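Hi P.,

Sorry for the delay on this. The queue was packed all week, but I finally got your sequence through. Input first:
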Amino acid sequence: MAYKTILYEQREHTVCITLDRPERLNAITDEMVGELEDAYASVESDDGVWTLIMTGNGRALCVGADLNKARTGGDEAWAPGVDTRGEPLLGSYRQWDAPQEATPPYLQMTKPVICAVNGIAAGAGLDLLTTADIAIASDRASFFDPHVSIGLVPGREMVRLARLLPLNIAMRVALMGKHERMPAARAYELGLVSEVVPPGELMKRAWEIAEAVNRNAPLAVRGTRLAIRKGLSLPVYEAELLSEGYRLRVAQTEDAQEGPKAFLEKREPRWRVR
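Then the structure:
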């Protein structure tokens, strides 16, 4: 697939999408948003894709929105905090909803997302981390949110981060802005990432994790992911009922029969994704 701001690579059942504006630290533009939306739709609709990896090219994963458009686009083309994409301000439902920018539609998609944090993750770049199902980082990675330092409220970035970190840590990140960065080792201590590796091993490890995920039954993986993701916003009892619904659906599939059969026959299962 030919894109200008991202790279799209598929190996067997895994796709890796790489933000590819290294000269701008992978800052998000309207063009990038459009290309990512197309790429995410391709991943979700392709039966041959089971897992998605997100990463960045160069020194950063992503530093958030490209503020150059504020200087060059004029007031009509850019409104702080509102993704107009050339539409009249608040002229569509999308503008009233929480903006996703570069983020995969993690609550609408079924396939698991792995984030490989190669460098700086800042502002909206933190969304790629907080909405991933598995996150790993290079030991050169760092994390911060500059919104308050440029006069803006971070909104969804900190709402998501405050659900992953202790409140006082999330507040520290939110309120100190660009004046403090969290290193990869500290992010690991706090559980923000599950693994830290040398820079040269980051993508090798990301592909390995994706391969391990893909050895499991794809529909069971998706049902498990959805049960956890959707259940987080519900009381425990309702979350259990939701999870049971996903369990019953997957139990009707051929793969649910194949798994136990392969176990008893002491062989690798042959998943058919149906």
